[in-house]
Design goal:
Layout: H1 11-24, H2 42-67, H3 72-88, E1 89-92, E2 96-102, E3 105-110, E4 113-116, E5 122-129, E6 133-143, E7 149-160, H4 163-168, H5 173-190, H6 194-199, H7 201-216, E8 221-232, H8 235-276, H9 279-293, H10 315-325
Antiparallel strand pairs: 1-4, 2-3, 2-5, 6-7, 7-8
Length: about 325
């Protein structure tokens, strides 16, 4: 999604939108969570304001008691004291650190909890969030080594471990980390073919993590992990790649079948050589096969054996048996 030059929004807002497009590959609003579920700093901001109001009220009350009335000088003094309290009293949350500069030089890290600074001498240029940050980024139409355009979406998990370096070594650490991750992603895609990018997602994650970490370590930032979320292949190539994958699967199936036949034939050859020299073993194997075939009791077994000869008689023998069995005639 792109904006035209006739966009009525102010320049700063348009610039922020372009930055979000560069950082995430798409509009950043698609990744925003519900603001009501995020931790707020309302209490940390309200505390110095309340302290400033109390200080101003106390100064005004003391001026009233000392002079018997509240003049313009007393009001000015109360306002000055209130502003001094607001600028000197600060509160850091548990996961925050504040970089304190004294006359332009780094002085210390403050927080968590309440801390104080010297008005007009010390100031706080940066408040660092040391929690784990998830930064989505992407590469739109990045060309692979075989000149195939891919749209890749990924997410980077990182955190600031050195607040001093994050403040003094880089201007905008969040934007710099996002650009570094996007550049590393494009470089990794450009060195591999489309099939390698699709099949080697875990290796690509590790390669991206090492590439990003080598750049941002000097900024006091640690990369926890990089994960590829989605790889979008052009529709024109999806059908071709599907046919290629099907052909490869059929090829592998045929190779596996041929290897199985080869193994079976080699085993059968060994068995035949064993039975060729051992007639007893062959007969025992026949008996075992007959036993296995009769286990279920549902088949019919035909045994071509000499035992069947007992159920049929020679016609000559049958006549002799009848003559012998016939009773002798009576006189």
């Amino acid at each position: 999604m792109k904006r035209r030059n006739s966009d009525p929004r102010p320049f700063s807002e348009k610039d922020s939108y372009r930055r979000s497009e560069m950082e995430f590959g798409v509009a950043a609003e698609a990744y925003r969570s519900d603001p009501s579920r995020k931790a707020t700093r309302n209490g940390a901001v309200l505390f110095p304001v309340v302290m400033a109001l109390l200080a101003a009220v106390v100064v005004a009350a003391l001026w009233w008691l000392a002079t018997g009335g509240l003049s313009l000088a007393g009001v000015v003094l109360a306002v000055v004291v209130g502003l001094a309290v607001v600028s000197s009293v600060h509160v850091c949350l548990e996961w925050e650190r504040v970089v304190v500069m004294r006359l332009g030089r780094f002085n210390r890290l403050a927080g968590p909890g309440i801390f104080f600074i010297i008005p007009l001498v010390e100031f706080c240029p940066l408040r660092v969030d040391q929690r784990t940050t998830a930064t989505p980024f992407g590469a739109e139409e990045a060309l692979t080594s075989d000149l195939v355009p891919l749209d890749v979406d990924a997410v980077l998990f990182w955190m600031i471990w050195d607040s001093e370096k994050a403040c003094t070594e880089v201007e905008d650490c969040r934007f710099a980390v996002a650009l570094t991750a996007q550049t590393a992603l494009r470089n990794a895609i450009g060195r591999a073919s489309v099939s390698n990018v699709v099949m080697r997602r875990q290796q690509l994650d590790q390669e991206l993590q090492e590439a990003v970490e080598s750049k941002v370590t000097d900024w006091g930032i640690a990369v926890l992990s990089v994960e590829i979320r989605d790889i979008i292949i052009p529709k024109e190539l999806q059908g071709v790649m599907s046919l290629e994958a099907q052909a490869e699967c059929r090829k592998n199936a045929r190779i596996t079948l041929m290897e199985a036949e080869r193994d079976v034939s080699s085993i059968m050859q060994e068995v035949s050589e064993t039975y060729a020299h051992d007639e007893v073993a062959l007969n025992l194997r026949k008996i075992h096969l007959v036993y296995e075939g009769m286990q279920d009791g549902e088949g019919t077994l035909v045994v071509p054996s000499a035992y069947t000869e007992g159920f049929t008689l020679d016609p000559n023998k049958a006549d002799s048996c009848k003559t012998a069995a016939a009773p002798a005639p009576r006189p």
